Amino acid sequence: MPPQPDSADYELLLPGERQDLSIQPMGKEEQYPKPEGRSGDGSAFLAGIVAALVSLILTWVIVLCNSPTYMGWFAFHPLLQSLALTLFTYGILTLQPTSQPKSKVAGFNRHQAAILYVGLPCITLGTGAVIFNKWINNKTHFTTWHGTLGIIAIAWLSIQIALGGGSVWFGGATFGGGAKAKAVWKYHRVSGYVLFPLLMYTAHLGGAWSFWGEKYANAGIRAIAYTVAPLVLVISVFTRIRLTKMKFI
Questions:
Q1: Angle between helices 145-168 and 178-208 in degrees, nearest 10
Q2: 55 vs 218: CA distance, rounded Å
């Protein structure tokens, strides 16, 4: 199990802010708390969670109500991918926009648990299921934009998680610790904010325009689950971004 961040990791989780927790009296931050969010952050969080759950529930209903055993191994693909995307969404939203050490580390722990411990295994198994299904049925791989963008996103995700973990585990020793590791964490966040829309667009293509989607769900359901919901998710996540915390502006 990857180690949890120690006091030195607080700086990595909030680029640009320094806090010496070893000498800072307990309770000082409770007396002078930093604002955790801006107006509208709560609504964006709620909208993102609802949109993710709507897409997840509709996907599971579509699969489970249409003879999933007939779909073979492919049935695991939409089930696991939709669950993984929901977990990724929660993992991002729960770390935005924490600013106090306690809430920041708690948010990081939830972020890591949702994305690394559960989300990554789900999306890996879901990808493996569709690849295996094509292999046993002698079907050609990557013949659609959904499949092509999907494998690109999975490869990107693997690098993304490696960068994120390496920048915080063991004080960011993988990247030299201190400011060097903090800089990597900053680009890890930026990369994640670019990768997230790609994942949503890939889900949109797979659900709204694929043969599977058109066969098992009507246009209205597909529009809600794979067009409206992903769009709301992207807007919700981007609404809560703090570019100033990454010192780009």
A1: 160
A2: 14
Nearest to 2 by CA among 155, 109, 124, 77: 109
Specify the pLDDT at position 119. Answer: 98
**Residue 20 pLDDT more than 70?**
no
* Residues near 28 by beta carbon (within 8 Å), at least 6 away in sequence: none
Percent share of the chain, pLDDT over 90? 72
Residues 189-200: what's their mean pLDDT?
Answer: 96
The angle formed by the CA atoms of residues 19, 24 and 27, to the nearest 5 degrees, is 110
Q: What is the pTM of this model?
A: 0.84
pLDDT in tens, 201-210: 999 999 999 9
Taking the chain, what is the end-to-end CA distance rounded to the nearest angstrom?
35
- Helices (H), ranges, the chain: 9-13, 28-31, 41-64, 68-71, 76-93, 101-112, 120-136, 145-168, 178-208, 211-216, 219-223, 229-239
CA distance 177 to 109: 20
* Cβ atoms within 10 Å of 138's Cβ, excluding its own: 6
Residue 97 CB neighbour total at 10 angstroms:
19
C-beta of residue 115 within 8 angstroms of C-beta of residue 88: yes
